User: Which sequence fits this backbone?
């Protein structure tokens, strides 16, 4: 059974989420504060498989919990944030959180994100995902090959690196900073305009209507997500 | 050479000497010239006695003329020095005045003013500036202090400030003090006081005190002006907060009631009749709750955003964004509320990147698209194009428009739709009710752009966001 640690201070939301997750067959432990979450995380045996972390906690910053978690292992962390907490949300994603949900969100959306995060946990210890298939697009990272509807698509080296980075996190949001750092290098993390240009080129080659993308999705102000 | 000519030479010598010498020395020199003429040339020579009466008159006249000229020269020199001094002081006042006028915080100019006062008094000067209103008690922390002061001096400064009267030598009050205490006066009140310590209290001149007071008043007026500016700003903020609060109240009282009524109806029906309802009915009620909550959530976002954008000094999270992505996001967001796929996007190729806050622009387009879908039948277009510089403005702009074929908006209503309706207004009958369009306009303006409403030629409306194009920095990474 998959164990989920839910850190959320609002009692009603905590109850609703716990019941909904339990109904889907997850084993849920709940914490109402950061310290409680940290204690549960430290002492729970076996350790949780995934953490759902709300940002607006009464006793401190979600970042400390994430830092503690990341020192130990790569347990997936889903951040739940209110809309005002944009800056903090992006910092947590950059610091290694797996995905985020903005309140209010639907249970269906939460379950979908949960499944993606758990699947990536499965591949984190294995060789990284090297093959991606969706909507007629096939990306084979090991063979360096991209095809759309059976036809080979020619990508420039930078376009390929960008696509490969998104494929490795398919279904999850990848922040601008992460993309710029992984594809161009750490000194380019502020050069968002590169990203816009190359993403435009990728969409022109891979999307039927680049203005209405179905695969390379935009998360405004945060980053990009490749359709799962 | 006769005696008269010799006398003229001596007079010339004493006049020339008076140009360089001080007044007493010039008088003494003239006397010496007269005596040496008497000794060396007036018969009998070698003595100070004078034989002839006319020689005595000559010597007397010579001395008188020399002294007169020396006196006149001395007065002229004194006047020239005073004029130089006054000009120098006027220049200094002007510099201080300009510095005060240009600085938003007059207390930053305390240092140069204290230096000027020290130059007048001959010893270090000190200043006390009030933070704000005159405090009820003499509390040191209620004022800004510049320069060291003793306890007595501090008490003197407070007294001077409270009475708005100068003390010290020559003022007729506390003349025994070794310093002037001068209030920093403005119209009707004082905003601090200055302590001008005097090197020579006995010889302190009224002119210097008048100068010191003029300098103090200059600072006092600036402090008053700064205090007024602060009060105006505070009043403006208060009015703005009030406006936003009114909008919020209006929005809650008007816009929130319908969705809340639907939610309560559906939820209580599920609660009370749950078992007796068919699965289809339950599903429909649940869907109603979800839809209305999403609507409430959007309205809450809009209201909060409007409050945020209306606050002074709001910071946008600006980044380089592509118009294609912003339009794409709006299309993706609208899809669930647009089952019949009435919304279509259209983009001019090769639009420049925009310098903007992507979340805000998404919110703006979401609102416009929502309105268009809600208040019109038939297709809705989301179009982005580049407007070359020309009649509209001196620089290129990106125009994003949401166009519908609805009934349109009456000319009289066109301006009103962007305004937040206030409590007491008649309930709006057209779209634009609540804060949706007001927040759109606030977002456009925060980006240095404009939101316009245009009636379309064959019916319907076009809401247009005009954004200035900012040149993208050189990008060495764009080769591909």
Assistant:
């Amino acid at each position: 059974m998959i164990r989920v640690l839910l850190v959320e201070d609002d009692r009603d939301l905590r109850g609703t989420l716990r019941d909904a997750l339990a109904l889907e067959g997850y084993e849920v432990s709940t914490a109402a504060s950061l310290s409680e979450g940290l204690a549960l995380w430290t002492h729970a045996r076996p350790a949780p498989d995934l953490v759902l972390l709300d940002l607006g906690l009464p006793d401190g910053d979600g970042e400390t919990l994430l830092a503690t978690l990341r020192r130990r292992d790569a347990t997936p962390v889903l951040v739940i944030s209110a809309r005002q907490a944009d800056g903090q949300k992006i910092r947590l994603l950059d610091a290694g959180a797996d995905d985020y949900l903005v309140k209010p969100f639907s249970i269906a959306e939460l379950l979908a994100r949960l499944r993606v995060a758990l699947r990536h946990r499965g591949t984190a210890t294995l060789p990284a995902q090297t093959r991606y298939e969706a909507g007629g697009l096939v990306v084979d990272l090991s063979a360096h090959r991209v095809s759309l509807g059976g036809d080979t698509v020619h990508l420039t080296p930078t376009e390929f690196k960008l696509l490969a980075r998104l494929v490795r996190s398919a279904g999850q949001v990848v922040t601008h900073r992460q993309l710029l750092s992984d594809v161009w290098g750490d000194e380019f993390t502020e050069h968002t305009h590169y990203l816009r240009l190359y993403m435009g080129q990728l969409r022109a080659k891979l999307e039927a209507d680049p203005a209405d993308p179905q695969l390379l999705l935009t998360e405004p102000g945060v980053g990009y997500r490749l359709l799962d | 050479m006769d005696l008269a000519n010799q006398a003229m030479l001596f007079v010339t010598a004493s006049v020339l000497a008076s140009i360089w010498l001080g007044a007493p020395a010039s008088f003494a020199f003239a006397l010496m010239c007269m005596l040496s003429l008497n000794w060396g040339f007036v018969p009998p020579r070698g003595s100070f006695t004078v034989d002839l009466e006319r020689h005595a008159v000559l010597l007397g006249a010579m001395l008188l003329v020399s002294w007169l000229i020396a006196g006149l020269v001395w007065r002229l020199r004194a006047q020239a020095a005073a004029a130089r001094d006054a000009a120098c002081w006027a220049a200094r006042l002007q510099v201080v005045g300009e510095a005060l006028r240009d600085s938003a915080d007059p207390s930053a100019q305390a240092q140069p003013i204290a230096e000027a006062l020290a130059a007048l008094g001959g010893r270090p000067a000190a200043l006390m500036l009030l933070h704000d209103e005159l405090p009820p008690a003499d509390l040191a922390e209620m004022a800004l202090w510049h320069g060291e002061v003793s306890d007595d001096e501090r008490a003197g400064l407070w007294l001077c400030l409270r009475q708005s009267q100068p003390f010290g030598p020559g003022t007729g009050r506390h003349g025994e003090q070794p310093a002037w205490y001068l209030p920093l006066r403005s119209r009707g009140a004082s905003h601090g006081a200055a302590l001008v310590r005097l090197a020579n209290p006995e010889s302190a001149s009224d002119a210097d005190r008048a100068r010191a007071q003029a300098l103090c008043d200059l600072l006092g007026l600036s402090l008053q002006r700064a205090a007024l500016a602060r009060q105006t700003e505070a009043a403006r903020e208060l009015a703005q907060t009030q406006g936003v609060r009114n909008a919020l109240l209006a929005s809650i009282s008007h816009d929130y009631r319908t969705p809340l009524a639907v939610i309560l109806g559906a939820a209580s029906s599920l609660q009370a009749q749950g078992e007796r309802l068919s699965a289809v009915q339950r599903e429909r009620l649940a869907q109603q709750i979800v839809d209305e909550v999403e609507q409430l959530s959007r309205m809450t976002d809009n209201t909060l955003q409007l409050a945020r954008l209306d606050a002074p000094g709001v910071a946008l999270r600006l980044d380089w964004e592509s118009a294609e992505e912003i339009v794409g996001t709006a299309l993706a967001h609208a899809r669930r509320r647009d089952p019949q796929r009435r919304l279509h996007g259209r983009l001019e190729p090769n639009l420049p990147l925009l310098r903007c806050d992507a979340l805000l622009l998404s919110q703006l387009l979401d609102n416009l698209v929502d309105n268009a879908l809600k208040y019109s039948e038939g297709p809705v277009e989301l179009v982005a194009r580049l407007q070359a510089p020309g009649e509209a403005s001196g620089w290129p702009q990106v125009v994003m428009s949401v166009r519908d074929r609805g009934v349109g908006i009456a000319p009289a209503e066109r301006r009103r739709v962007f305004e937040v309706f206030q409590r007491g207004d008649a309930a709006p009958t057209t779209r634009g009710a609540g804060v949706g369009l007001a927040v759109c306009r606030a977002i456009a303006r925060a980006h240095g752009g404009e939101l316009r409403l245009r009636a379309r030629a064959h019916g319907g409306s076009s809401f247009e966001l005009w954004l200035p194009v900012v040149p993208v920095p050189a990008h060495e990474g764009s080769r591909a």
In short: Residues 240 and 310 of chain B are 7 Å apart (CA to CA). Residues 422-432 of chain B have pLDDT under 50 and may be disordered. The longest strand of chain B covers residues 189-197.
